[in-house]
Amino acid sequence: MQVLKTEKPNINDQIDQFEGSIFLNVGKQIQRISLRSIEYIKGYGDYMKVKCNEKSHTVHITMKSLQEILPSTDFYRVHKSYIIRLDKIERVTSSHVEIDHTHIPISRNNKQELLSLIPWVK
User: What is 11-117's CATH number?
Assistant: First the structure.
């Protein structure tokens, strides 16, 4: 008997299949979350607060794992505890970005790269 190996599907293919959504463990449920609705993600150890347009979800996942799942063209890790959605940025200052009136710190090492990712006129 021959055993067939099946490869694990690529997460980006799965996101495309589910129209730009990911499924995360929220409490005792698996919740579908639209990537477009995510404003930012704040880390609390192995738990993340995923702030969406209208509500927040607390999920048990590491920041590194979540960062690997999210498309790098849309999301950027600005600080050891924060990932932001680039098109949700309202303002950038010397030390933080503002999204939905929330001040999110930018690490000094990430500020120049962040500025290179957004369309701004010098």
Answer: 2.40.50.1020
**Dihedral angle of Cα 91, 92, 97, 98, to the nearest 10 degrees:** -20
Confidence of residue 87 (pLDDT cuts 50, 70, 90): very high
Residue in this structure with the two tokens 């996942």, named with its chain if needed: 61
User: What's the pLDDT at 27?
Assistant: 87
- Residue 60: DSSP 8-state: E
Which of 53, 68, 60 lies closest to 102, judged by CA? 53
Please state, in angstroms and rounded to a whole number, the distance separating the CA atoms of residues 91 and 99. 7
Q: Write down the residue that tokens 């993600």 correspond to.
A: 41
The reported pTM is 0.83
